[in-house]
Write a structure and sequence with these properties.
Helices cover 21% and strands 29% of the residues. It is of the alpha+beta class and 262 residues long. The chain has three domains: 3-70, Structural Genomics Hypothetical 15.5 Kd Protein In mrcA-pckA Intergenic Region, Chain A; 74-157 and 242-260, Alpha-Beta Plaits (2-Layer Sandwich); 162-235, Alpha-L RNA-binding motif (Alpha-Beta Plaits, 2-Layer Sandwich). Strands 7, 10, 11, 12, 15, 16, 17, 18 and 19 form a nine-stranded mixed beta sheet that branches. The chain has a four-stranded antiparallel beta sheet with strand order 1-6-3-4. It has a two-stranded antiparallel ribbon with strand order 2-5.
């Protein structure tokens, strides 16, 4: 079914901007769809890239537009320790190298990964990490060529939670927990409040709404704790589930919608 939505804001807005704000696609992608004649307002094809939509009007994307947008590949990887998220240096192993046919997870419960319909990344695929994990950390990593998804996860206005289990060395005290939750700065900037709870005597659960460089390790170091193991198990509504270490699977359309639409 074609994507359809009524515009109810009082002020007119350019179609490409509204589609981007709605999380459908980027402005550039919206302009490409308009140029291909795949966008209509109240049944009339939009031919002007500067066209504005008015209150009460209904915008529709043709089925071909939906197919084109859904062709942007996004994958989930269970990253092991020793693998880097992005560009490798020297002999480092990049996460994209894990995305082979053999490592594609065939989940019997989800019914996915069972056939040739799954796109396996190749040398021409340009997948960027959305929320990096350093080489010494493991767990859920998203690689994608979807700019809208990236903005929803790591954009400046993103409120998506990222959840981690962290094994530490050192005494965990209430004073340290209070500082971790609300009271630390990194690089001269105050951190957003964090949810930090004790899971086991030397294991903490962190839930963050930001992702500064090596943030959890630096937070722990600031209060006299050393991180022994850092495991990311969730990004927003997407959790690692039973995905085995070193394996990957594609993000589903429903999962993408849950992230982009908040």
């Amino acid at each position: 079914m074609a994507w359809t939505r009524r515009y109810d804001d009082a002020e007119p807005q350019r179609v490409n901007r509204w589609l981007a704000q709605s999380g459908v696609c980027s402005r550039r992608e919206a302009e490409a769809l308009i140029a291909k004649g795949l966008v209509s307002i109240d049944g009339e094809r939009v031919g002007d890239l500067g066209r504005k939509i008015l209150a009460g009007q209904t915008l529709t994307l043709a089925d071909d537009a939906e197919t084109e947008l859904q062709g942007r590949l996004t994958i989930l990887i269970h990253k092991p320790v020793g693998v880097v998220s992005g560009q490798p240096e020297g002999r480092q192993i990049p996460a994209i190298r894990l995305t082979t046919q053999d490592a594609l997870w065939k989940d019997p419960l989800r019914g996915e990964g069972q056939g040739a319909a799954i796109q396996v990344p190749d040398a021409k695929t340009r997948l960027a990490p959305i929320g990096r994990l350093d080489m010494d950390s493991r767990g859920l990593l998203i690689l994608s060529e979807d700019g809208v998804l990236a903005k929803a996860v790591i954009g400046p206005d993103s409120e998506l939670e990222k959840e981690y289990l962290v094994q530490v060395e050192g005494a965990i005290t209430e004073k340290k927990l209070k500082l971790l939750r609300h009271g630390l700065e990194l690089d001269g900037r105050k951190l957003k409040p964090a949810q930090v709870t004790v899971v086991e005597p030397e294991r903490l659960r962190f839930i963050l709404k930001e992702g500064r460089n090596r943030q959890i390790r630096r937070m722990c170091e600031a209060v006299g704790l050393a991180v022994v193991d850092l495991f990311r198990l969730r990004i927003g509504p997407i959790d690692l589930g039973d995905l085995p270490e070193g394996c990957w699977r594609p993000l589903t359309a429903g999962e993408r919608a849950a992230i982009v639409q908040g």
